[in-house]
Amino acid sequence: MKFLLIKDLVTQKPNLALGTLYSLFFYLLFMLTGETSYSSVTVVFSSVAVAWMVVLGSAMSDRGETQKFFMALPVSRGRMVDGKFVLLGIGALIGFLGSGLVYGALRLFGVPVPGPWFQPLDLLKILNGLLILSPIIPLYLRFGQAALRVGLVVLMAVFVVLQVVLLAASAFGIEGAASAVFGVLDRFKALPVTVRNLGLLAVGLVVAAASYAVSRLVVRRKDF
Amino acid sequence: MNVLEVEGLRKNYGRVVALDGVDLALEEGYVMGLVGPNGAGKTTLAGAVLGLVAQDSGGVRIAGLDLKSRPAAAKEKLGFVLDECRLVASLTIGETETILRSAYPRWDRRAFARLLDRFKLSPKAKVKTLSKGMKTRASVAMALSHRAELVVMDEPTSGLDPIVRRDLLDAVGEYMEAEGRGVVFSTHVTSDLDRIADYVALMEGGKVRYRLSRTDIETSWALCKGGPDLDLSGADGLLMGVRRGPYGFTAVTGRKTDAAARFGPALVLERPGIEDLVVHLLDGGSR
Q1: Over the stretch B171-226, which tens digit does the pLDDT of each residue have?
Q2: Pairing state between β B207-213 and B199-204
Q3: What is chain B's mean pLDDT, rounded?
């Protein structure tokens, strides 16, 4: 498995460097929008974004069916799946440290960044961000990188359409459905922040466990 | 010791039978060629040996290690060259070596450097800048640099010019000089096998129809040629894959002494190439 991680980190070198730039971007963005605790928001955004960027980048680097080459190297099918999940963690760690570096640098140059760099609750939020999106891994393993790209575009389109529908429903007075959805969101937001995040963690753990099990099953039967 | 043992290997793709109970073994110190028409199952068999194809039943052992129960340990003993270059295009050869070094405990940096030098490849060259021949050379260098006990090559020479092919075959020949190694070489270019193969497995319909040694081919087999008027009645078991043309027929025999005695000087016997055996033995009988 070690060599698969090395492969992913070597192929994703540009994305890892870009990850630190993302942190800088998030700091500046939230600074401009007047967010009061943007250090905390940035560390969560950066960690989750870099983790997924690295995993997706690793999937995209399979354009020449390179998986076939790497699966012929000394690794079991199960370890190959483990590698993808470990990579997610490594990406998050790099994003996390990257945002810390930017935070430190900004403070060093006297930029008034609100502290602290992160709070314990942020770690929970990062974990949620990683777990909830984990179905992307079995999707890639089953259908390949091309299908993954299409899947992501479709997913984004669904979110956009959903938002438009909800906004349109509110604007044109179709209150029923929209207010029901917003009502659920409001009730969720009314919960204490720790309870909210622990609830999400529970959901995330279930989703991630299912993603892992499906990934192992897919790879066990897969012909490379 | 056998470097490769395949027992009762089966693989179906839906209703298509790709491997139909393949049994095969290769002792250390030998090169085995896999030949057969398209769809015979050569690439599926190579894929199964490399752990790329999920077999339905049967087993594969590499240097005594079961591929299913100990895949990583078994694949440490394997070198391979795939039918197409599957290296990451954006990486350099040197970066790819970094990955391989961490994959193979017995990776030999000096052997790899020597092979790169021999093939005139720079470690700084990006894979995407290499020609097909250069990519194959790089793949061969990678396959031969970790003291693999079995090297599996799936169509490594197809589409390559004769100089590159000669280079690769020479490198494989030299690799075989060390003890405890074997090579399985799947190809359509049968002239390559004429040069290096000690055994040939003739595959068709997902089965190994014939497994012949070089000694068998030299001592017992012959390409037979005769005129159109030669009476072949009663020669069914003696002459195989008879192909008729306007000026006579060709066939092969695995009992050349008997064939010579049966037909006398009317039947011309020649040493067969592997292509002759493929064409006559795997082409579905007489024409």
Answers
A1: 888 888 877 799 999 988 888 888 889 999 999 999 999 999 999 999 999 999 99
A2: antiparallel
A3: 91
Q: Do B90 and A61 touch (CB under 8 A)?
A: yes
Q: Is B71 an interface residue toward A (CB < 8 Å)?
A: yes
Both tokens assigned to B78: 């394997």
What is the structure's pLDDT at B16?
A: 92
Say whether residue A143 is in contact with chain B using an 8 A CB cutoff.
Answer: no
Strand partners, B13: B16
CATH code: domain B2-216 is 3.40.50.300
Residues of chain B scoring pLDDT < 70: 283-287
Please state, in angstroms and rounded to a whole number, the distance separating the CA atoms of residues A81 and A141.
9
Closest of B77, B60, B65, B73 to residue B11, by C-alpha: B60
- The answer to whether the Cβ–Cβ distance between A64 and B102 falls below 8 Å is no
Report the residue of chain A nearest B151, measured CA to CA. A72
Tokens of A98: 């990257």
Q: Give me the residue spans of the domains in chain B.
A: 2-216, 220-282
Say whether A66 and B86 touch across the interface (CB within 8 A): yes
Of B73, B75, B84, the CB nearest to A72: B75
The residues facing B34 across adjacent strands are B186, B201
Q: Which of A1, A8, A63, A69 to mutate to test the interface with B (most CBs of B within 10 A)?
A: A69
**Confidence (pTM):** 0.84
Q: What is the DSSP letter of B265?
A: G
Element spanning A98, H or E: helix A77-108
> What's the per-residue H, E or C state across A139-156?
HHHHHHHHHHHHHHHHHH
**3 state SS of A35:** coil
A12 contacts in chain B (CB < 8 Å): none
Cβ atoms of residues B9 and B19 within 8 Å = yes
Q: pLDDT for A22-43, tens place per residue?
A: 888 888 887 777 666 777 888 8
**CA-based end-to-end distance of chain B:** 42
